[in-house]
Each structure stands twice: as C-alpha cells, then as structure tokens.
Amino acid sequence: MSLLTVHDLVVETEHARLVDGVSFAVGAGRTLGLVGESGSGKSVACLSVLGLPPRGVQIAGGRILFDGDDLRTKTPAELNALRGREIGMILQDPMTSLNPLLTIGRQITEMFRYREGVTSRSEREARAIELLRRVRIPAPESRLNSYPHQFSGGMRQRVAIAMNLACNPRLLIADEPTTALDITVRLQILDLLREVQAERGTAIVLVTHDLHLVRRYCHDVAVMYAGRIIEQGPVEQVFARPRHPYTKGLLGAVPRLRDLQHRLTVIPGQPPLAGSIAQGCRFAPRCPRAQADCLSAYPATRAIDAHRGVACWHPEPDPQTADALLATAAS
C-alpha cells in the first residue's frame, strides 16, 4: 500500500497551469525519483503536497492522500501539525532552510520543543547532539553553538537532514538536496538518506536532474514534462526500455564514462512556457515520432503493464517485443 498517493493534481496561477493532472505514488521504504527539465513542475508539485505552493499559486484540483487521509481536506493547523512530524522536506539550498541568525543547536532543539513538547533543555540538547552524530557531523558537542555560515555546504545539508529526521517523519521529500555539492559529498548525503530509509522504512520522493543518482538510489521513477508526468515505472524497466521519446532523449543525453565514443542525444527546441501550451501533446514540437494526431489531443496515460505507464500516442517500440517479432520472422 502506498504511503503517499497524488491523484490528478492541478496547480495553477491566474494565467497559467503549472501542474496539470499529475499522479504518482510512493510506498514506505521506497524511493521515487521525480525527474525532468527545469520548469517542468517538479518542485511545485512537491510543495503542494505539503500545502505550501509558492506565492500566487493555488491548488485547483486533485487529491493528495497521505496514509489514506486527503491532505486537501485538512485545516491549516492540521497541516502544520503534519509538517516535520509526519512529512519532512529537504530543500536544495540549505541556506534557505537554516536561519543564519540562530545557532545550529537552537534550530534543531526547537524541533523537539515545538513538535514533541520536550521541555528539558538538557534533553533537547542531548537529542540534538545524537542527531548531529547520526548525520556524521564531527565533534557534535562543540558544534551546537556554531552558526550556519561556519559550516561547509555539505555540512549545512547534513544539518538540514538532521532537522528533518528529528521527529522521525514517515515521508521525506528531498527537492534536489545535492545540487550545489561536489560529487563525493553528493553521494555521501544520498547514502545517508538510504541508511535512514533502511532503518526506519521512510518513504522518499527525490527530485533531481541527475539520472545517475536516480539509477543508483531510486526504486521507481516518474518523468515530468511541461507540468505532466509522461512516463513512470520501476527504474530498471524505464531506463532499460524507455517508451516515451522524451525519456529516451533524456537517457541518450547522459554521458557514458565506459563509452567515450558514444554520441550524446540532443533534444531539439525548448520546453513550452507555462501559459503558452497549445492543444495536443506538449512534446510534439520536439518529438521525432510526432504525427498529425499528436497535435490534436493530449494522449491519456496507457498502462504498459501492471507497474508502468506512458502518455504517448506513438511510444517507442519495446525492444523485447521487437526482438521477438524479428526472431519469429527469421524462423
């Protein structure tokens, strides 16, 4: 059973629809990778799960089910009680989630004070030290009185993770948590999240541009384009046999270190601007497989099998099916 189920989510401004009928789900102990170009609606969709769409943006439709309860029916006070305690969110820039005027210790201990009602200062500090040790901050006892600017980018992100783990949330949304970090620190951060997930059964939604990280850390993947999910399913299946031309293009643009002679795929054109989307498939102007019907109506998501779906009028042929047909014809 899925811990989080988003069904037909619609998020819009007065003049443009930013997220248009998005549906995805993630279960306890699993990681869903949400990928796509900048502006595709990934972050807006995740913020909407928490009931925190950006200023000037509103949730106009759909259901957001957390453990069976529709979060859209919750009052602001009820949603506030869920944030941090049941659902945590790690932002891509830890400096936007850490108060530069407060010490690290103050910011972490406040989680215990306001979310769990721990009145003892010594107990709050002891738990904060244990959390910092858990995320591998060296000499955590001496760092409680440090300020965010006294930490490196990777250490600040570890502190942000510690704050999100303080109340043992069952769902963790990580919105490009490693964007500004070098590759070594990036892997350390994601290894840490995977360890926490293994220990606590945490469900994770990982928003990222890095398909290498999706392959390494995610169980499932959902590919977004221009406000819609165009393909989703288990990572191994989607990466091995992409059916949507956009997914195939993204994977073809990933450098292969073992094959330096491989020529990278170039997806021509640019994604449409919000508010300027015409009728039909939104990828059609850039798609090598586009036909006349692609311009007349947006394709519904078709089920490829029990775990995969693709929104395309003319999906890429399944290599396995093509191989089987060729073998039959040859015999």
From TrEMBL:
Cellular localisation: Cell inner membrane
Superkingdom of the source species: Bacteria
Record-annotated ABC transporter domain positions: 4-251
Pfam families (UniProt xref): ABC_tran, oligo_HPY
GO cellular component, one term: plasma membrane
InterPro entries the record matches: AAA+_ATPase, ABC_Ni/Peptide_Import, ABC_transporter-like_ATP-bd, ABC_transporter-like_CS, Oligopep_ABC_C, P-loop_NTPase
Keyword Transport: yes
Keywords recorded for this protein, A-Z: ATP-binding, Cell inner membrane, Cell membrane, Membrane, Nucleotide-binding, Transport
Chief localization: membrane
Membrane-protein topology: Peripheral membrane protein
Alphabetical GO biological process terms: peptide transport; transmembrane transport
Coiled-coil positions: none
Molecular-function GO terms, alphabetical: ATP binding; ATP hydrolysis activity
Family from the record: Belongs to the ABC transporter superfamily.
Protein name as annotated: Oligopeptide/dipeptide ABC transporter ATPase
Biological source species: Caballeronia glebae
